[in-house]
Amino acid sequence: MKTTWLRKEGAEELLLFFNGWGMDRRIGDHLLDESLSEGFDADILLCHDYRTLEPEPGVMSEASQYSRITIVAWSFGVWVAQHIELPPIERAIAINGTLHPVNAERGISPPVFQATLAAWSEKSRSRFNRRMCGSGEAYALFSGMLPDRSAADQQEELERLQEHFLTQGEAGGTAWRFDHAIIGGRDLVIPAVQQYRAWKGLPQTVIADMPHFPFFHFRNLQEVLACIR
Fold first, then answer.
1. Which DSSP category does 188 fall into?
2. pLDDT tens-place string over residues 149-162
3. Scanning 25, 35, 95, 110, which has its CA 20 to 30 A from the CA of 216?
């Protein structure tokens, strides 16, 4: 797992952002810019590239120095967050992801996952990104923050994630649990109905017109965190 400090200014609170599969820091940079302009003052550590589930040496020791830690996890980052060793967590929000990432009832159906993995290419990822964004307008905006990664690189990460899902299982062994789930009603990657089942009994915010990519509906991190208050 790769980690990138997007902001490290000695704040009291740390926000741990678990990105989706295939991404890099560019979405984090977009969120940071939009959040700082509205007065966001926590430090931010971005986690991405889940070919391994081991954080880079020393980074979680640094994270443990914060008095408060909040998790915002998106897509497959939701599962990853529950399967690595973290310092004590104060609150955690899942966005368009579940703890059952490849599951016929509570995640992506296994045949769809296998088809995505087998056919991944430069051409297919353009189709996937358009589907993830939900509209041509959103896709055009997302094109300005495309991850600087090759299709082969992303496919390798997806293969490793599949191995993690099989070896680690669905339930994480961590002491903390997610407090809130944000669900996009127009999610074409992890269907909303699957997410409802996965988070039964957990407080939920449902945004009817939000696709899998949520960060044009939420302008900044403050708006994400407002869902749990």
1. S
2. 999 999 999 999 99
3. 110
